[in-house]
UniProtKB/TrEMBL annotation, chain A:
Residue intervals of the NADH:ubiquinone oxidoreductase 30kDa subunit domain: 101-221
One GO CC term on file: membrane
Stored PROSITE patterns: COMPLEX1_30K
Signal peptide per UniProt: none
GO molecular function: NADH dehydrogenase (ubiquinone) activity; oxidoreductase activity, acting on NAD(P)H
Keyword check for Magnesium: no
Similarity field: Belongs to the complex I 30 kDa subunit family.
Native source organism of the sequence: Macrostomum lignano
Chemical reaction(s) catalysed: a ubiquinone + NADH + 5 H(+)(in) = a ubiquinol + NAD(+) + 4 H(+)(out)
InterPro entries: NADH_DH_suC, NADH_quin_OxRdtase_su_C/D-like, NADH_UbQ_OxRdtase_30kDa_su, NADH_UbQ_OxRdtase_CS
Cell compartment(s), UniProt: Mitochondrion
Entry protein name: NADH dehydrogenase [ubiquinone] iron-sulfur protein 3, mitochondrial
TrEMBL record, chain B:
GO CC list: mitochondrial inner membrane
Pfam families, alphabetized: ETC_C1_NDUFA5
Top-level division of the source organism's lineage: Eukaryota
Name of the protein this chain belongs to: NADH dehydrogenase [ubiquinone] 1 alpha subcomplex subunit 5
Amino acid sequence: MINLKHILKLRSLPGATSCTSAFLKETLTAPACSRINASMISGFPTPMRRELCTEKKMPTVRYSDPAIREPLKAFGKYAGECLPKYIQSADVTIFDELEILIHPEGVLPVLSFLKDHHAGQFVNLSDICCVDVPSRQFRFEVVYNLLSLRYNCRARVKTYTDELTPLESCCSVFQAANWYEREVWDMFGVYFTNHPDLRRILTDYGFQGHPFRKDFPLVGYNEYRYDDEQKRVVIEPVELAQDFRKFEYSTPWEVFPNYRDADKNMRKEGGGDEK
Amino acid sequence: SKAAGKLTTGLTGLAVNSTPHISLTALYDRTLKLLARMPADAKYRQSTEAIVKERLAAVNSEPDISRLEKRINCGQIEEVVQQAERELQLARSFLSWKPWEPLIGQAPPNQWKWPL
């Protein structure tokens, strides 16, 4: 059972986190750390990275602050309990980012909830982007990035769709979605219903194709050049002066032991270079 | 009157509300009426009722605006009114969407798998 006051209290004081007071206790008693921080002097709680004064077992690994993770996890769980019809899962990634995975029917309800609810107040739509993974049944993954100014918190909402199924436009919820959705339509071909003005935004007038799809070639299909005889720019099929070169950047040493299987899967599909 | 209260909120487009108690009680009462139409076991209804009732209690017991702002601790009173308006709109939409029902569909098996 989520304690709502816990969520609201934790996130309503700007800059102060629940760990700050615990941290202050730690610094006063821990003999190893003799740094004076600003909060000791001024008395006003300032956010301070705990890693500076804890013994680092893995100094090369990014420190994951539980004071950031726990409220995000709590809010994700709370959102999942409020909207069980649409939210398939709500997790915090390894980089302490809240991701809410939803069914495509739930775009408007979930975004409205995050924006309008008292505990959310994600009033700012930072970005809408799309990821093309052609091997999936629903190849396009549309990602909405939100920011709550009130609670200084970010959230991500992810849905999925394929080439033919449209998504509901969220322009009625966020005015900023207008051009972002136009960009997703132009670059990927994801259609948004009830969009006030869904037309191309980045490609040339009369351009055919959706450039950011994985099956669209890097150099495109047509090239433009100025023709001196016709005294205008002409469009012709692309001709490269050099053959397209593909580099294999593989090393003989294993780089990511945790992703050993992913490596094999990529190779099976005839995938490209591993980093 | 404005002379007694604040001159400006400091936020563009947000005018000073000279009678915030009236606005807030009206909005919260309407929200509670809408919430009462949702199923009692809906998490959204339970938590929103708790928030709204707490704020309504604060509004009813604190006549001074700046003390009320500090007590609610969520920005200026005009922003609190904005939040109440948004919550009311959300409750209205939720009555038609009914998001407390069980999940309409799971994603296909490897939809969210990353790396592939």
